[in-house]
Amino acid sequence: MSLVLSAAMLGVGTRMTKYKPLLSSIAGACLLMACASDPAPAPSPSFEPPPPRAEPGLPPPVVEVADNAPLKYVVKKGDTLWDIASYFLRDPWLWPEVWYVNPQVNNPHLIFPGDELLLVWVDGRPQIRRSGLGVERLSPRVRNLPLDAAIPTIPIDAIRNFLRGPRLIETDTLDDAPYVLEFVGEHLIGAEGMSVYVMRLPENDVTAYQIVRRGETYRDPDNNKILGVEAIPIGEIEVLDYGSPAVARVLDSQREILIGDHMLPSEEEIFSANFFPHSPANDVEGRIVSVYEGVSQIGQYAIVALNRGQTHGLAPGHVLSVYQAGRKVSDPYKSGYGKVQLPDQLAGTLLVFKTYERFSYGLVMEAFRPVHVLDKVKNPQPGR
What is the pTM of this model? Predict the structure, then answer.
C-alpha cells in the first residue's frame, strides 16, 4: 500500500510549518500500514538441502508413498529424519523430492519435536510440509530454538561409541599427528594421572586429544592400494603447556600408554539435521571393507567402512544399497558341472555419515538379509 500526501491537502506555503506534527503522525500511520501489508523478507536459510535427483531435462523420479502412510504426523523427541521419511515414503532417500522448503521459515530444512507434518498432493505428486504455512507466509518468524534441538538424521546413540572407538584414518593424518616423546618422571609406560611430553602439538584452541595407536592397515580390495590405517584409542589427554615439547596430563587410559603413541583431536561431532538422505548424483560402486567392532555378520545400525570417498563423489547423507554377492553354483546339465554365477541379492541400505578422501563410513539403516565384508554398494533404485 502506498499513500501520497499532496501539498494541497494540507495547505502549502508558509503555513506548512504548523502542520509538521500532523505530517509526522500521518507518516507514522503510513509506515505501520505498509509494514502490516508488506512484511520484511525472512532471513535466508543457513544452508541449502541437496538438489532433487532429477537432472535438467529429465522427469523427476517416481515417489511412492509408503503403505499406511499417515496424512498427519507430530514429530516426537527421539525421532530421526530417516524414521519420519520411512513413515511417509517407500524409499526414504527420496525425502528431498517431497519436502517443501518454506522460504518464510528460518532454517526450513530442520525439523523439531512438536512440528506437525502433513502429507498433501500437488499436481499429482506427494509433498510433505509443516502445518500452518498460511500463517507463516503472513507473519514470518524466526524459531528461537538451538540448531542441535532439531531431530538428527540418524540415531546418535548408534554412532556415539564409534566416535570414541577404533576407526580408519588416512595414513598421512596419523604419520603427521603429535606423539608421545617421554613421560614426566622417566616412567616406561603411561597411565591415568601421569604427565607426558608431546611433540608436534600445534598451538590452537584444541586442548583435548585422544591417544591412539596404529592398528591394521586396510587396502582397497579392487586395486590393493592403501585406504587408511586403523587408529586404536587407548586414552585421553589434556594439554597443560604448549611448547616443543608440550606438556599434557593423561585424563583416562584404557590400556598402557607407550612412547610413540599418537594423538588426534577428540571428535565431538553432532550428526543432527545437517544433511538429507539422498542418492549420489553420480554412479557409485564400491565395497564394504570393514565393520566397526569386527562382527562377522552385519545388521541394522552396524557401522561399516567403504572403499569409496570424496574423490568418488560421496558426501554425508548419501544413501547406497548393499548387495550380497551372488554365489557360484554347479549346473547339473553342463559338462563337468560348470559353474553359474547367481545374481547379486539386495541385502540392505546404508547412509554415509562421514567421508574421507578415499574411504567413508556408513550406518546400515535396513538389513533385509545378512550383510558381509566385501559385499557391494551402489546407488539405490526407486522401488527396490
Answer: 0.74
